[in-house]
Amino acid sequence: MPIWNAWIAPDRLARVLDQLDPGFDNVLEFRHPGWWREEVYSALRQRGVAFCGISHPELLDEAMVTGRWPITVFTARPTCTVRFTVMRRWLD
User: How far apart are CA 66 and CA 44, in angstroms?
Assistant: First the structure.
């Protein structure tokens, strides 16, 4: 489990969320696995901000819905391929 440190902290997230215009459908993409935690999901849900998942072998491959709809980035690199089973969940 990654450490919740100075770079990954609730006050940083709050500052970002405070700057978002609620008149838009906002999305945040976190590339460090330390952000993939319930405290972050809860803060995004409270503001209606979508959590953008990433198809990466070191991150969860489930759809985390915190905004109006689930969002993910499917990558296609030799070391980071999208498994069909992951995509199948999004299609069902």
Answer: 6
